[in-house]
């Protein structure tokens, strides 16, 4: 049941339009109220994007107080949200609990706002919710718009227990791959936002066993708030009151106007709303309890499409819960270094155990009429090579870079150049190499002249090049002409690798988070062009 509907009835009064220097020092008026104001309040047309129509007039260039009582069950956290032009300051039982656009900077739109009422304040019983809504200062134009809408409901259920490692994360894209007879591909991206799944295993014992079961049983098919434990940051002590914490928002999925979890234990935690993200800080406009050793992490919204698996021994239980995130975003990633107008990366593949495995794939069609003669056809222009690509990211920065790499790939959609990281060509030059590279033949001219791209690793970095001509100088020397000079001394070369154009061979990528800030990924790559 909705606690406050969009067309709820409020008491209201207009006052002088002033931006409060200290909202916490304001007092909700005791008198001067007019009853029967149906929300939303405003002047002009309602905001675009499906906002509710204005029901009660609010004069531009004034400030508006509104208040009403709510009855809470004391079991779940109340969350207020709405649309506002230009700013609003929220009070709960007379105490200031947060604001949207507290500086009252002029807005060019009517954005959504969200304020979470601390659970310690929202006890069972009747409470007063009041808002001071302001127009931007200096807005003397009688044609300017003002608008405020308010809705209130309980926050989705949240599992307050810390999961054990490893946490499993799955990102799933959807690519339409059409392969021509000659093996060439046309790929189209069908899903812009990856589907995100998070699998947690929560170990509980004692009283927490009962709490975990009751939550899973009663809210199995409801929406959940999902703490993203893989991006939790330790922040230590937090004082009560309004606060800005030191954290690294650049390497995690904190979002302005959405939830975060301040957590110390299964019994001491608070769902907050992010007000502002700085370069090394996160600001919240909520009152909090005092914390001595807290963690902060983003919170996503989602559901449990599968069953909850409970394993128990009688004195200890583990609840396995796999959430599907509903508010994942299409992470925008800028283009990296380019080669032939495509992405190129030099991140070397880690072995799976003591080795790695390549599959050399070709298309061989067989025509057998079962009369004795069998015909074979090889329609592909060249073979393809598949290899497992394994990476381990250490710490938030590397883990975020790996996530950006995956979003840039978008599953099987976007290809990239990558060296084989093998010593594929043995160079024979003794003086500075320009556009002529002499190598051992190694049957290249007989079997592999379709491989026309190389990556030369030198002491100062990688040099990608295209082979434009092949000439046998002798039985022991093959001369390759390159499109661009290497300008490199042979002594500075570490290895020369084949350079292949590759893509992920799957749209589903699994990340494993074993703890200690590590993130592991292993995915199969398919070289589609040499």
Provide structural commentary.
With 530 residues, the protein is mainly beta. The chain has three domains: 9-155, Jelly Rolls (Sandwich), CATH 2.60.120; 167-177 and 193-325, no CATH class; 331-530, no CATH class. Helices cover 6% and strands 48% of the residues. The protein contains three helices and 40 strands. The strands form five sheets. It has a 24-stranded mixed beta sheet that branches. A six-stranded antiparallel beta sheet has the order 2-1-5-10-7-8, with no helix packed on it. The longest helix has 15 residues, at 395-409. It starts with 8 loop residues before the first strand and ends with a strand. The model has no long low-confidence stretch (mean pLDDT 92).
List keywords for this structure.
single chain, mainly beta, Jelly Rolls, 3 domains, 6-stranded antiparallel β-sheet, elongated
What's a quick, concise take on this entry?
By secondary structure, the protein is mainly beta. It contains 3 helices and 40 strands.
Mind summarizing the main beta sheet?
A: 24 strands, mixed
What is the straight-line distance between the termini?
60 Å
Radius of gyration: 31 Å
What integer is the average pLDDT? 92
> Structural class of the secondary elements?
mainly beta
Shape: elongated
Percent helix, as a range, is under 10%
Low-confidence stretches: none
